[in-house]
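# step 3/5: fold
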Amino acid sequence: MAKKIFIITGDYSADVHAASVVNELKKNDPDIIVEAVGDINLQNAGVKLLFDHKSMGKMGLTFKSIMEHFQIGKRIVEYLKNDFKPDLVLLIDYGAFNLQISKALKKEGFKIYYFIPPQIWASRKYRLKTIKKNIDKVLTIFPFEKKFYEDENIACNYVGHPLAYEIKKCDNKEKFFIDNNLDLNKKLVSIFPGSRMFEIKFLLKIFLGAVKIIEKQRSDVQFVFCHAKNLSNDAFKVPYKTIKGSNHELLAYSDALILASGTVALEAAMYETPMLIAYRGPIFFYLVYLLVRNIKKACLVNIITNQDYVDEFLMFDATKEKIASGLIELLDNKDKINRQKEGLRRTKALLKEKNCINEVVYELENALKN
């Protein structure tokens, strides 16, 4: 009888990773049946969707969205229990939803694996209790994560990071510059103000201020603001060139980057592009974060290497003056540039130690045999 897997994702990147896993699974076993909560990439991999991300994207803190969240979770559990009856459920990222649904799924006796688990190493370590009780095995994407789970006697394996092998190859800088009316004789600084509206609300004005300071000091620099794919075209307007849908090209071809903290720092590391990290948010959430955090570093490059290769300007340190000064140093200070590039190469090597998708597929195939 054909084996069945149900996958639950909540955003585009998880959908990409899930599709890679499914394609590899089907190479090894064309008869395997996979259904999911996902999006276009899983659909293109031939997966039937129970819900898509338009439904998942409605989640939030309003009463209405919480009730929608609850109803979707209830419907998934009922469908798996009464209709699909999978041999294994694979949760990918999307911690708030997936941890909650894991409780109901485990009560029904499903075998549950979690790929890209919540970042308990960063904050909310109490989530380990839920994971220990409901997840059969955790597949981590950072080498340092494994110890957190093993210390709690939770079955775990480090599988490598999917970005290390999924990252887009960018090797035609001249064409990109010409297509986007950029000056090949000037240095390029790209600014990534975030992919969520609240990030843009807090960071955009600061980043614009930093750019204006740099502009006064340097005539050999041009600026591009990266417009996240998931944001509407009118999400923000700036008096500088804005490019949407070319994240990887901007990360690869820039001389330096100003980034809101997040996975984008790892993508930049894959291209070995010098960067600085800046982040600011609501003071209330920052105070709560201080209470639940487990580490003091924010940039994933610094966390993975346990070194301070990338400058971090967080909350009250995220000022236009400090960011401008840090960026100019990244353009001019060769020692600083070389040291950071050393850290980016170290990060890249650590994350490429294993072929992530192959490792995940191996784990799933073993789980289906037992």
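# step 4/5: annotate
Residues 4-160+354-369 form a domain with the Rossmann fold fold (CATH 3.40.50.2000).
# step 5/5: archive (pending)
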